[in-house]
């Protein structure tokens, strides 16, 4: 949990001239921003570049934050927009995980999964690996709820649905995440539980 002044207080103080405090916001949200960027591009260097771009954009538009929602909700919107712009600029091909060919390729790499199972993974790493197998929409809602700690109301605002629909989408995304974990990470789950 965060200690010290709240996000809104920091923003107000930065806007009043205490620019050095902006580093506290960066520190609080750097993992959040980097994690979201990694959902859009598997390349760590690209994700780091996106994260840097995001924090520059946020600093420049801090005065536009109205405080009607959590800072993290506003930040999430900037991160996703920056990621999409970055991918368009780089002209990277983005494949939907709903495509059957992607799963066929993953099944054919089963030996790679077995080799990786030898490596001891933390619970967080296993979950993050499973999230990478989800569709973009499912990964986004799981990330918003569990990693960004957004409420169903805030998630609804971000994705443009009412809170009840967000709840249903979250439930379905959890089910698909569970299925992916059971299918691809059986050994890791045994190690984590056992």
TrEMBL record:
Record domain RNA polymerase sigma-70 region: where: 25-91
Keyword Transcription on entry: yes
InterPro entries associated with the record: RNA_pol_sigma-70-like (IPR039425), RNA_pol_sigma-70_dom (IPR014284), RNA_pol_sigma70_ECF_CS (IPR000838), RNA_pol_sigma70_r2 (IPR007627), RNA_pol_sigma70_r4_t2 (IPR013249), RNA_pol_sigma_r2 (IPR013325), RNA_pol_sigma_r3/r4-like (IPR013324), WH-like_DNA-bd_sf (IPR036388)
Gene3D superfamilies the UniProt entry points to: 1.10.1740.10, Winged helix-like DNA-binding domain superfamily/Winged helix DNA-binding domain (1.10.10.10)
Domain of life: Bacteria
GO molecular function, one term: DNA binding
Pfam families referenced in this protein's UniProt entry, alphabetically: Sigma70_r2, Sigma70_r4_2
GO biological process, any: DNA-templated transcription initiation
Sorted UniProt keywords: DNA-binding, Sigma factor, Transcription, Transcription regulation
SUPFAM superfamilies: Sigma2 domain of RNA polymerase sigma factors, Sigma3 and sigma4 domains of RNA polymerase sigma factors
Keyword check for Magnesium: no
Record-annotated RNA polymerase sigma factor 70 region 4 type domain positions: 127-177
PANTHER family: RNA POLYMERASE ECF-TYPE SIGMA FACTO, RNA POLYMERASE SIGMA FACTOR HI_1459-RELATED
Family membership: Belongs to the sigma-70 factor family. ECF subfamily.
NCBIfam families, per the entry: sigma70-ECF
Protein name as catalogued: RNA polymerase sigma factor
């Amino acid at each position: 949990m965060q200690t010290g002044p709240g996000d809104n207080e920091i923003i107000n103080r930065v806007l009043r001239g205490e620019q050095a405090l902006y580093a506290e916001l960066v520190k609080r949200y750097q993992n959040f921003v980097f994690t979201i960027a990694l959902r859009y591009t598997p390349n760590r260097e690209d994700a780091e570049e996106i994260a840097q771009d995001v924090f520059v954009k946020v600093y420049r538009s801090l005065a536009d934050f109205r405080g009607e929602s959590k800072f993290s909700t506003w930040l999430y919107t900037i991160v996703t927009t920056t990621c999409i712009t970055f991918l368009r600029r780089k002209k990277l091909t983005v494949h939907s995980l709903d495509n059957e060919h992607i799963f066929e390729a993953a099944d054919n790499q089963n030996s790679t999964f077995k080799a990786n199972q030898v490596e001891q993974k933390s619970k967080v790493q296993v979950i993050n690996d499973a999230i990478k197998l989800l569709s973009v929409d499912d990964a986004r809602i799981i990330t918003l709820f569990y990693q960004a700690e957004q409420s169903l109301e805030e998630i609804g605002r971000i994705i443009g649905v009412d809170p009840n629909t967000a709840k249903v989408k979250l439930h379905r995304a959890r089910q698909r995440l569970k299925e992916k974990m059971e299918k691809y990470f059986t050994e890791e789950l045994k190690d984590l539980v056992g």
